[in-house]
Structure formats: structure tokens, C-alpha cells
């Protein structure tokens, strides 16, 4: 309730008493204090429900001692006639009109020689009138300062703006510490408001994590969080979380004493929407088709609806100014735009209600199918890292477009095009499970399509995913289907890729003669067609396979050619692959200096382009190098890092190799029973996936003999049995524990 005419420490003010505590936002208050002292007009902006009013009131309370002639709060939300704005301000200050003077003149005369703070709240619907009055009063009264709150700035000279940040949120890590969750501003606000409606409310550490998820999904918007917390009288926090898919029906009817637009989340959004220009309303609805943000180029392509680029830019600028869209800068310096998810869902609901959703979905689909195909050509170029980053930023849009294609039988050909373009992203970024599931879903629905090179590429892509998930039978089957289709349609260039892929499976299973023959056939085709990217890949595969077959001279020749060709064409992903192969050859021949140089170069490239799969392979190679040089501690660190990456990517076969390396370290540490368990697990696991045992990871026969000598026969057999029965997760925990 307002304290009309009340004083605090002798200072007149009408600041409303707040019925609830002010949670967090100390950094925001400090920022506003700093900005206030540097500018006579400070406008606090933010999306509806972001806490602009509470922040302005908190600021005013802190500033009371600095304004001996009064601090006055004016709520403009009920104002419908802009011409009555000066009278509303005068009424808040309890000023009566003076005979012969307008109310505006009365205000100016009263404030002229006073040091006063004026808080003008909710200005967005009378923006021009507020700006005019603020300027005139500031010109008339040197001791006056104005704090305004609005969805957008007043846009006058000398104005300082401050955009209210959302409340701080817990991190997204699934293993998040509940103690840290409790410390976030958003979770603290939820908990305090929940206790107001239920004095018995208390939450466990598990509840704290659920509340953190609720707050993240509500974008840290205070109004949304308070409305959600009010539901704890009837629902558990898990039930609230699970109902957030329909947040605008869930977050209603909990604040009867609040302003009408703050009684429900939908009302807060509606207030903002109703004050947009028609072209801004249309663009807001159309932009809701994007997920994870968008560029101006994409907005023009998808949402223009007859407008040119600058008309779209003008409407987009209006939405940014009104705090409905956030603008970010990418690492490349380009602007990128995004919604808070609550705003996006509101705009999306309007789009569906108006029957606009399907047309805009098709526009979004067409843009991202074409965009993905265009970008795919750059993923084997010298600027690979840049384009991978762009694909990362559009990953949510790409998934949405692909999912939309899969929901419509008549669009399966578009799904094939898109999946073909996304294969490199899935492989390099390690999205192997996602890639496999999507490719298999597409393949299952392509029975009516004619064989094409692109469809064969999708078949091979599914094989690539199976290969990286240790499903050798599945990989071989898809590769063979791709090869058969390419032979049937005469796609000679594509045949080279299928031959090379089948060669990888042969090599994986120890069929070196067959693998070398396939790699050679593929190499001939790629050289004839001028496909240097795949020629370099063939050379790397020939080098690695020759090493496994025992021909070190041939291996070095192939791998050095591969490194040189990858560097010539700027194929960074291929370069790190060939460097790791060459480093392994040097490691095998005892040339540790050159081996380390190769591994270090490979690791730098892998981290540059974000290829976690190859990074894990190189880390395991560095671990084996450290073992050769007698640094068991460093080897353990590298193995543990490699295993964590491999586990996230589902590379179980390579994890088994790392665990065998750790077994050797355990023998050095006089722990033969643990070493035997890891050796047993590795052998059992590799047999289960039908893979050969690479000779650099062969069970250490001397180590096994030493372990047998250190253990009784019964103890050895027991350890071996326990290891062979371990699951992959159990073996990882056993091998690296807290390392």
C-alpha cells in the first residue's frame, strides 16, 4: 500500500510498501545506482514480468537520503489518456493546480528549486507523452532526477538505459550440485514465494534441482517463477515441472491483489503484444518458428512475407527495443537474435490460433534444407571450424526442420537431403546416437523413393554411425546396401566411399588383406575423379592398415602423403586423423620425439574444430607415449580424459583399449588383481562386438604372467571372472574412479 505523504528519515515519499521480500538483484541495484549518478534520466527496460518495477522501487529506497525534497512514485499503468499524464504526476505528489497556470507549469514551478527523484512506472503505452514531460521537467528543474520503467526506452537525448537481466539460474549440468542450485536467485525466489502460500513448504536436494529446472524453463522471469511457486499449495514441484509444457494455463489465478496484467503469465505477454505495431505483431508471430535463435538473413528469408530486408530490420528493431527479443553477438561479430522461451511460446500459440503455423513451418524448412546443403560443402574446407560453429548455432533449427519433414510423408525426400547434409556435423561433433536414430528413421520410410546418390549417402551415413557405436554387423550391412545401390545407378564416385567404409570394417575385424584391397580400389576412383578429400582419407586408411599388417615402410609413406595432401587442401579434420596415425607409427618404432610432435599437432587441431572423437583417440595415444617414457601418472591422466570423452560419445571399443593401458599401469603399481579384471573386461567386450584386438592393445603377456605369479590360481581366476562380467560403466568406474 502507498504511504501517501509519509516520511522516511524526514524525507517525503509515497513509495509503496512491498508485501514480499526483494530477492537477489544486488548487482542490478549497484549497476542502476552507478548509471543513475551519471545521467539525470535512467530508463529501466525489460520484458513483462522481469521485475522492472521492483528494481526501480528498490533503487528509489536506496536513494532516499540523497533527495531531501522527496521521492515520488507514479504508476502509469491505469492511464489511458496521455494528456492526463502531468495530472497523474501532480496527484502522486499531492500538488493542486494553481490558478492561471497549467498543471505542467505547476509541476515545473514546484520542482524548479528542489532536489527530487521522480519514478515513472509502466511508461510503454504512453511513451511519447512520458518522454515529452520528462524532458520538460528536467530542463526546468536542475535538482530533478527521473527513473522510468518501460518495455522500451524513451528515446530522448541524455537518457541512460538499463536492461533488467533475468534472475541468475543454476547451471545446466545434469550433475549439478544442489547447494549451488539453492544459491541461485531464481531458486531462492521460488522457495521464498512457495513458503508464503505453504508455511510447511520445504524441499530436498533433489527438489532443489527440480526447482532449478523449472526456473530455467521459465527463463528466470520473476513473475513466471512467482506464479509457479504459488502452485505449490496444490502441486509438488515435480508436477509443476511436468506441466510447464502448458505454462500459460498453469501460471494463472494466483495473485488476486496484483495488477490485472500480472495475475497470469498470459496477461503479461498480452499487455506487451497489444502495444506492438501491426507489422511488429506479425513478425513476432512468424519468428516463433525459430528455435535457438536466428540471423537477420534467416529472418528475411523465412518471415519477410512481402517485406524487404530493411522493413524486416525495422520491425525486428522495434521488437528488440520493446524487450521482446534479445540480440547477441556471435564470436564472428555478427548479430544473432533469440526469444526468451516464454515469449516464444506465447507468440507460437498466437501463430497456431491464427492458422499461420503450417505456412511458416514450410518456409523455415525450405530455408534450412537449402542452408544445410550449402554449408555441408564447407565442412571439409580450410574454414571448417567456422562453418561447424555456424552449424552448432543453428543446431536447434536444423533439428526442428528435419523433425518437421519426418512428420509429413510427402517430405521424406527433403529429410533425405537434410540428413545427407548433416552427416559431417554429427560425426565431427560426436552426435552419433542422434545421427544413427535419425538416419535409421529416414531409411525406414524411403521404400517408395527411387535410388539416388543422395539416398545411398544416407545409407552409408547410417553405417558410419553404427561403425562408431561398435555395431560392426550393422555398419557392414548399411555399407553394402549403399555400395549395391551405387553400382546399380552407376555412381562411381560414391562407390569409392562405400569401398573405403567397408575397408574400415575389414580392418576393424583384422581382415587386413581385404581392407587394403578395398582402400586401393577406392583410392584409384578418387584420384580419377579428383576427389582429394577422400583421396587423403584413403591414404590415411592405407597407412594405418599397413601398420597393423606389419609393413611399416608402406605405412609411413602413405601417412606422410596423407598429412601433406590434407594440409594442401586445408582439410583440418583429415589432417588430425592422419597425424595421429603417423604418431602411432613413430610410437611403435620408438621415435618418441616425432610421435609427440604428431600427437600435439593433432590435438590442437581437434580442439580447434571441436572433434571430440578424434581428441579422445589422440589423448589415448599420448597416454601410451607417456607409458613408454615411464610417466605412469601422466599416462593415467590422459587415459582418464580419453575415457570420459569416449564414454560420452559411445565409443566402447576404444574405451576397452584405454582400460587395457590402465591395466599395465596397475601392474606397475603392484595391483595385479585390478589389472587382471581390466584385461578380462577388455577381452570380453571386444569379443562381444566382433572386433580384432589391435596389437598395441594386446594383453600384455609378460604382465599376465607376472599377475599369475603374484596371485594364487584361484585369485587369478576369480579376478578374471569378475572382470569379464563387468558392464562398460562398471569397468570405467573401476578403472578411473575419481581420476
Structural features, described:
- The structure is a single chain.
- The protein is mainly α and 739 residues long.
- The protein folds into five domains: 6-163, P-loop containing nucleotide triphosphate hydrolases (Rossmann fold), CATH 3.40.50; 178-267; 276-355, Orthogonal Bundle (Arc Repressor Mutant, subunit A); 531-610, Serine Threonine Protein Phosphatase 5, Tetratricopeptide repeat (Alpha Horseshoe); 620-736.
- Helix content is 64%, strand content 6%.
- Helix 5 (127-140) links the parallel strand 5 and strand 6.
- The radius of gyration is 33 Å and the shape is elongated.
Characteristics:
36 helices; mainly alpha; elongated; 739 residues; single chain; Rossmann fold; Arc Repressor Mutant, subunit A; two-stranded antiparallel ribbon; 5-stranded parallel beta sheet
Number of strands: 9
Radius of gyration: 33 Å
Instruction: Please state roughly what percent of the residues sit in beta strands, choosing from under 5%, 5-15%, 15-25%, 25-35%, 35-45% or over 45%.
Output: 5-15%
Q: Which sheet architecture does the biggest sheet show?
A: 5 strands, parallel
What's the mean pLDDT score? 87
Shape: elongated
Whole-number total of structural domains: 5
The percent range for helix content is: 55-70%
CATH class value of the largest domain = Alpha Beta
Q: Which structural class do the helices and strands define?
A: mainly alpha
Low-confidence stretches: 1-7, 254-259
Helical run tally: 36
Q: What name is given to the CATH topology of the largest domain?
A: Rossmann fold
Amino acid at each position: 500500500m502507498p504511504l501517501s505523504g509519509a516520511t522516511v528519515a524526514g524525507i517525503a515519499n509515497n513509495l509503496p510498501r512491498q508485501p514480499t521480500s526483494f530477492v537477489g538483484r544486488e548487482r542490478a541495484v549497484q549497476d542502476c545506482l552507478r548509471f543513475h549518478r551519471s545521467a539525470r534520466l535512467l530508463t529501466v527496460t525489460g520484458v513483462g514480468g522481469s521485475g522492472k518495477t521492483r528494481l526501480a522501487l528498490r533503487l528509489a529506497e536506496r536513494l532516499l537520503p540523497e533527495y531531501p525534497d522527496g521521492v515520488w512514485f507514479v504508476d502509469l499503468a491505469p492511464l489511458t489518456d496521455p494528456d492526463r499524464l502531468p495530472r497523474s504526476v501532480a496527484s502522486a505528489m499531492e500538488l493542486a493546480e494553481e490558478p492561471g497556470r497549467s498543471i505542467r507549469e505547476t509541476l515545473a514551478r514546484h520542482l524548479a528549486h528542489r532536489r527530487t527523484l521522480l519514478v515513472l512506472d509502466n511508461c510503454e503505452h504512453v511513451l511519447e507523452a512520458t518522454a515529452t514531460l520528462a524532458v520538460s521537467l528536467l530542463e526546468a528543474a536542475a535538482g530533478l532526477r527521473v527513473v522510468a520503467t518501460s518495455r522500451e526506452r524513451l528515446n530522448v537525448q541524455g537518457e541512460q538505459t538499463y536492461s533488467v537481466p533475468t534472475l541468475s539460474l543454476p547451471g545446466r549440468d545434469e550433475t549439478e550440485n544442489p547447494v549451488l542450485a539453492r544459491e541461485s536467485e531464481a531458486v531462492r525466489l521460488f522457495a521464498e514465494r512457495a513458503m508464503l502460500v505453504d508455511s510447511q513448504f520445504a524441499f530436498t536436494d533433489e527438489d532443489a534441482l527440480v526447482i532449478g529446472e523449472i526456473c530455467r524453463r521459465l527463463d528466470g522471469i520473476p513473475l513466471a517463477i512467482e506464479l509457479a511457486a504459488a502452485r505449490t499449495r496444490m502441486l509438488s514441484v515435480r508436477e509443476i515441472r511436468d506441466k510447464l509444457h502448458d505454462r500459460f494455463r498453469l501460471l494463472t489465478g494466483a495473485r488476486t491483489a496484483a495488477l490485472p496484467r500480472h495475475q497470469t503469465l498470459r496477461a503479461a505477454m498480452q499487455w506487451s503484444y497489444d502495444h506492438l505495431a501491426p507489422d511488429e505483431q506479425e513478425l513476432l508471430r512468424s519468428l516463433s518458428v525459430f528455435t535457438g535463435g536466428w540471423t537477420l538473413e534467416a529472418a528475411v528469408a523465412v518471415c519477410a512475407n512481402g517485406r524487404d530486408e530493411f522493413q524486416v530490420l525495422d520491425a525486428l528493431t522495434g521488437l528488440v527495443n520493446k524487450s521482446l527479443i534479445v540480440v547477441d553477438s556471435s564470436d564472428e561479430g555478427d548479430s544473432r537474435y533469440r526469444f526468451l522461451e516464454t515469449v516464444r511460446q506465447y507468440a507460437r500459440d498466437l501463430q497456431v490460433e491464427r492458422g499461420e503455423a503450417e505456412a511458416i513451418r514450410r518456409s523455415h524448412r525450405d530455408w534450412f534444407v537449402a542452408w544445410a546443403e550449402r554449408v555441408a560443402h564447407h565442412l571439409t574446407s580450410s574454414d571448417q571450424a567456422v562453418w561447424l560453429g555456424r552449424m552448432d548455432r543453428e543446431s536447434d533449427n536444423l533439428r526442428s526442420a528435419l523433425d518437421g519433414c519426418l512428420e509429413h510423408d510427402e517430405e521424406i525426400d527433403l529429410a533425405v537431403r537434410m540428413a545427407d547434409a548433416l552427416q559431417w556435423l554429427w560425426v565431427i561433433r560426436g552426435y552419433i546416437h542422434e545421427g544413427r536414430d535419425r538416419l535409421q528413421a529416414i531409411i525406414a520410410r524411403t521404400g517408395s523413393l527411387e535410388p539416388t546418390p543422395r539416398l545411398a549417402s544416407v545409407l552409408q551415413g547410417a553405417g558410419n554411425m553404427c561403425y562408431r557405436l561398435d555395431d560392426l554387423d550393422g555398419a557392414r550391412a548399411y555399407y553394402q546396401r549403399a555400395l549395391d545401390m551405387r553400382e546399380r545407378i552407376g555412381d562411381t564416385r560414391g562407390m569409392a566411399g562405400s569401398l573405403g567404409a567397408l575397408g574400415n570394417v575389414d580392418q576393424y575385424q583384422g581382415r587386413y588383406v581385404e581392407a587394403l584391397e578395398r582402400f586401393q580400389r577406392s583410392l584409384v576412383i578418387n584420384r580419377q575423379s579428383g576427389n582429394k578429400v577422400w583421396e587423403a582419407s584413403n591414404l590415411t586408411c592405407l597407412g594405418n592398415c599397413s601398420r597393423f599388417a606389419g609393413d611399416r615402410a608402406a605405412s609411413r609413406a602413405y601417412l606422410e602423403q596423407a598429412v601433406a595432401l590434407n594440409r594442401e587442401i586445408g582439410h583440418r579434420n583429415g589432417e588430425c586423423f592422419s597425424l595421429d596415425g603417423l604418431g602411432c607409427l613413430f610410437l611403435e618404432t620408438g621415435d618418441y620425439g616425432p610421435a609427440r610432435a604428431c600427437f600435439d599437432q593433432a590435438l590442437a587441431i581437434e580442439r580447434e574444430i571441436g572433434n571430440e572423437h578424434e581428441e579422445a583417440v589422440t589423448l589415448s595415444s599420448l597416454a601410451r607415449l607417456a607409458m613408454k617414457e615411464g610417466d605412469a601418472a601422466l599416462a593415467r591422466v590422459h587415459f582418464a580424459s580419453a575415457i570420459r570423452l569416449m564414454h560420452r560419445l559411445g565409443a566402447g571399443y576404444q574405451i576397452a583399449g584405454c582400460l587395457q593401458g590402465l591395466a599395465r599401469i596397475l601392474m606397475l603399481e603392484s595391483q595385479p588383481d585390478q589389472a587382471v579384471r581390466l584385461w578380462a573386461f577388455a577381452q570380453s567386450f571386444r569379443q562381444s562386438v566382433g572386433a580384432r584386438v589391435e596389437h598395441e592393445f594386446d594383453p600384455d603377456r609378460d604382465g599376465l604372467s607376472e599377475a599369475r605369479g603374484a596371485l594364487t590360481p584361484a585369485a587369478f581366476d576369480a579376478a578374471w571372472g569378475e572382470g569379464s562380467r563387468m558392464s562398460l560403466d562398471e569397468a570405467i568406474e573401476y578403472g578411473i574412479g575419481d581420476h
